[in-house]
Design brief:
Layout lengths: L1 H12 L5 E4 L23 E3 L6 E5 L3 E2 L2 E3 L4 E5 L5 E2 L19 E3 L5 E2 L6 E4 L2 H6 L30 E4 L7 E2 L5 E3 L1 E4 L2 E3 L2 H8 L2 H6 L9 E3 L17 H5 L26 E8 L5 H11 L10 E5 L8 E7 L9 H13 L7 E8 L16 H29 L15 E2 L8 E2 L18 E5 L19 H4 L8 E4 L6 E3 L25 E3 L5
Parallel strand pairs: 1-11, 2-5, 2-8, 3-6, 4-7, 9-12, 11-14, 13-16, 22-23
Antiparallel strand pairs: 1-10, 14-15, 17-19, 17-20, 18-19, 21-23, 23-24, 25-26
Length: 534
C-alpha cells in the first residue's frame, strides 16, 4: 500500500508539469519505415534513402551495404561509433535476410506523423520517467490532454503548458500543423529549449526542415511560461477535441459496465464516476488534489482507484472535474470508483477547501457477459457473432435438406384410370373384329384365316372420381367428353365382309401403288376398304 501512496504523491507534486513523450521515429532500423519490404535492408539490397524528401534518417548501428543512394535534400545521421561497410561480396548473415534476392530494391518510405494523433504520445509525471520510457509509469490523463497543452495556442498564458520530450539518438518526421503551439519546455535531441528563439533558429536549418513540417510551411512554436491561476488551468485543447478523437476507436477500450459517463475532454465513456465540483472563495486546485489523494486513496477499500483532476475550458466558471476509475475486473469494473465518488460527495463539502457543490455521475454494474479488458469485444459485437453463427448453421441445414431431396426418387401419384373394355370370345387374336357390321382387314394377318373375334363395348362403368382427372390446361375434359357417357357400343366383324383392292396411282396404274415406307422396306401397300357403320 505504501508504494501506491508514494506514487500518487509524485503525481500530485507534478500535476501541472506533465511531460509528453513523442514515440514515432524515422530510424533506419525500424521495419515500418521500409514500406512493403517490411524489414530493415539486407547487405545485398540496393538501398534508396531518397524516396521521400526532405528526410532525416538516423542509423543506430554498423551496416554492411552493397549499394546506397542518398537523399538530395535531408540528412543521414550516424550514431556514436557507427561504421558503414561496402564489401564486394556481402553475405546475408541475418536470419531475416536468408531469402533476400541480391540487388532487391529497398526504399526508405517513412510516413509523416501527426502532432495531434494521441497515439503518437506517452504521458509521464517527470522528465526522468519520460526519458526512461517505461510504459508502466505512464500517467492517466483525459484524451485531449495526451496532446501537449496548449497545442491550441495560448498567447495570454491562461492555459497549461506542458514539457515535451523528443528522445535523443533518434530522428523524426512530424507534422505540427499550421496553428501556433505553446509549450512550457522542449527537449529535443539532447538539447533543452526553454524559450522560443533558439528553437525557431533550429527550425530554419536543414535538420529542422527535414523533421518538422517537412516540405511544408515552417511551424510556429512558442516556448516558455504557463498558467499560474491557483484555482487551476485548463489544458486548452478543447477546440481540438474533434480532430484528436478521430484517431480513437471507443469499442477497442473494452468497457464492461453499463451507462458509462463521458468526462469533459474525453473521447469515450468510462467505467467509474465523473465528479463535478463547484468552488467558491479560497479554493486552491493543488490543495484539492492533495486532499483527495491523501484522504481517500489511502483507504484500503479504494485500492486500485485512479484519479484525474482537471479543469476544462468549456465547463462553467468555478468548476473542476474529478474522474475516478478502478482496476476491478469483469462487470464490476468501475464500482469501487463509484463508491469512492459517493463518499467524496458526502464528505468533501465539509473539508474546508472552499467547495460549494459536488455532483456525481457513475456507471452501473455490467449486465452482459464478462469480457477481457483492454480491447475486448462489446456486447453488440458478441451478439453479432452469435447471430452470424446461427445463420450459418441454418444455411448448412437447408443446403443438406435440399441435397437429400434431390437424391430421393420423385414419387408422382396420379389418379386411377378407367378400366379397359373386356374382350369376349376367343382368347387368341385374329385379323378381324366385329363392330356393328363394319369390317376391317389387318394386312399383318392372313386375310383367309377363319378365325375371328368379337369385341363388345358396353359403355363405361360409373367409376366416380376414378374416371380420370381434369387437366387444368384443357378445361374439364372428363365431364365434357361424350365418351364418358353411359352409352352401349358393340360390334361384330366378319372376316368375309372385308374386301381388299389394290391401290391405284393417279394415272390408274394399280402396280406398285401407295406409299413406300423406307423404314420397313414394304414394296407394295394394299388399300383397305372398310365399310363400317357405327
Amino acid at each position: 500500500m505504501r508504494k501506491i501512496f508514494i506514487f500518487f504523491l509524485v503525481l500530485a507534486g507534478s500535476s501541472n508539469a506533465l511531460v509528453k513523450r513523442w514515440i514515432k521515429y524515422s530510424d533506419y532500423d525500424d521495419p515500418d519505415n521500409w514500406g512493403e519490404l517490411n524489414r530493415a535492408p539486407c547487405p545485398t539490397d540496393s538501398i534508396n534513402l531518397g524516396a521521400v524528401q526532405p528526410i532525416s534518417v538516423y542509423i543506430q548501428s554498423n551496416l554492411t551495404i552493397t549499394e546506397l543512394a542518398l537523399p538530395m535534400t535531408g540528412e543521414v545521421i550516424l550514431g556514436p561509433d557507427v561504421i558503414l561497410n561496402f564489401p564486394s561480396n556481402p553475405d546475408n548473415v541475418d536470419p531475416s535476410c536468408q531469402d533476400a534476392t541480391p540487388g532487391q530494391l529497398a526504399e526508405f518510405q517513412v510516413q509523416t506523423q501527426e502532432w495531434f494523433n494521441l497515439n503518437n504520445w506517452e504521458v509521464y509525471g517527470s522528465l526522468a520517467d519520460a526519458q526512461e520510457g517505461d510504459a508502466a509509469k505512464e500517467v492517466g490523463v483525459l484524451d485531449i490532454e495526451r496532446i501537449p497543452c496548449s497545442s491550441g495556442g495560448d498567447t495570454a498564458g491562461s492555459y497549461l503548458r506542458d514539457e515535451v520530450l523528443f528522445p535523443e539518438d533518434r530522428s523524426y518526421r512530424v507534422d505540427m500543423g499550421s496553428n501556433p503551439l505553446s509549450l512550457k519546455q522542449l527537449n529535443f535531441a539532447g538539447k533543452v529549449y526553454t524559450t522560443t528563439a533558439p528553437f525557431s533558429d533550429f527550425l530554419d536549418t536543414v535538420s529542422g526542415q527535414s523533421q518538422f513540417n517537412p516540405g511544408g510551411a515552417r511551424p510556429t512554436v512558442n516556448i516558455g511560461g504557463s498558467c499560474t491561476d491557483v484555482t487551476g488551468c485548463a489544458c486548452g485543447n478543447d477546440q481540438l477535441k474533434t480532430a484528436i478523437c478521430a484517431a480513437v476507436q471507443c469499442q477497442d477500450r473494452g468497457l464492461q459496465c453499463d451507462s458509462p459517463p463521458t468526462p469533459q475532454g474525453h473521447c469515450c465513456g468510462i467505467c467509474g464516476a465523473v465528479v463535478t465540483i463547484g468552488y467558491g472563495d479560497n479554493f486552491n486546485f493543488q490543495n484539492l488534489n492533495n486532499y483527495v489523494r491523501t484522504q481517500y486513496l489511502q483507504q484500503d477499500k479504494y485500492q486500485g482507484v485512479r484519479i484525474i483532476l482537471s479543469k476544462s475550458a468549456v465547463s462553467r466558471a468555478g468548476e473542476v472535474q474529478l474522474v475516478l476509475q478502478d482496476d476491478t475486473p469483469g462487470r464490476e469494473n468501475g464500482q469501487t470508483a463509484a463508491a469512492m465518488a459517493q463518499e467524496v460527495k458526502d464528505t468533501l463539502p465539509a473539508a474546508g477547501l472552499g467547495i460549494t457543490t459536488v455532483d456525481v455521475t457513475a456507471s452501473k454494474t455490467g449486465t452482459g457477459p464478462d469480457r477481457i479488458t483492454g480491447g475486448g469485444m462489446g456486447g453488440g459485437q458478441i451478439a453479432g457473432i452469435v447471430i452470424g453463427i446461427i445463420i450459418f448453421l441454418l444455411l448448412i441445414v437447408l443446403i443438406g435438406f435440399f441435397i437429400s431431396r434431390r437424391s430421393t426418387p420423385l414419387e408422382l401419384k396420379l389418379p386411377k384410370m378407367p378400366k379397359m373394355p373386356k374382350f369376349n370370345g376367343k382368347t387368341g387374336l385374329t385379323n378381324e373384329f366385329e363392330m356393328g357390321g363394319a369390317t376391317f382387314s389387318n394386312p399383318n394377318f392372313d386375310p383367309n384365316s377363319p378365325d375371328h373375334f368379337t369385341l363388345s363395348y358396353s359403355g363405361v362403368e360409373d367409376l366416380g372420381s376414378s374416371k380420370g382427372f381434369n387437366n387444368p390446361m384443357y378445361d374439364n375434359p372428363v365431364e365434357d367428353n361424350p365418351m364418358y357417357s353411359d352409352t352401349s357400343l358393340s360390334g361384330t366383324m366378319d372376316p368375309a365382309a372385308v374386301t381388299t383392292t389394290p391401290p391405284t396411282t393417279p394415272n390408274g396404274d394399280t402396280a406398285d401403288g401407295g406409299i413406300e415406307n423406307p423404314i420397313y422396306g414394304v414394296d407394295n401397300l394394299q388399300e383397305v376398304v372398310m365399310d363400317a357403320e357405327c
